[in-house]
Amino acid sequence: QVQLAESGGGLVQAGGSLRLSCAASGMRLSSSPMAWYRQAPGKQREFVAGITSQFTISYTDSVKGRFTISRDNAKNTADLQMNSLKPEDTAVYYCGTGAGTRSINYWGKGTLVTVSA
User: Fold this and answer.
1) DSSP string covering the chain, please?
2) What whole-number distance in Å separates Cα of residue 117 and Cα of residue 103?
3) Which of 116, 117, 113, 115 is nearest to 39 (CA)?
């Protein structure tokens, strides 16, 4: 059974940094696309960043140049380094995997990121 567990969320001031980590079990991460999504209060869940099994990376425009997605197949983890955080980045962040970075079948429970002004 595929299980994903996010960690690393918290409260940070605007301009600060956080590193989120997603630990995968019940699957071979090396053969799977991984993605980070977020859901702000009152809004739909949205794509943030994705990395394929071939290490092709994509980002939503609002985080380009500030966020970096990475994967460590040996550790079965996928991380999201978030720099220059803004209050509008406040959301619950979820990692997911599936048929593609935009086609998610499995989700973690999420980790809350709060950016204060």
Assistant:
1) --EEEEE--EEEETT--EEEEEEEESS-GGGS-EEEEEE-TTS--EEEEEE-TT--EEE-GGGTTTEEEEEETTTTEEEEEE-S--GGG-EEEEEEEEEETTEEEEE---EEEEEE-
2) 33
3) 113
In whole angstroms, what separates CA 60 from the centre of its chain?
12
Residue 68 is encoded by which pair of tokens? 């970096």
pLDDT digits (tens, 9 = 90+) for 38-53: 999 999 999 999 999 9
Separation of alpha carbons 54 and 31, rounded Å: 8
pLDDT at 12: 98
- Residues paired with 69 in a beta bridge: 80
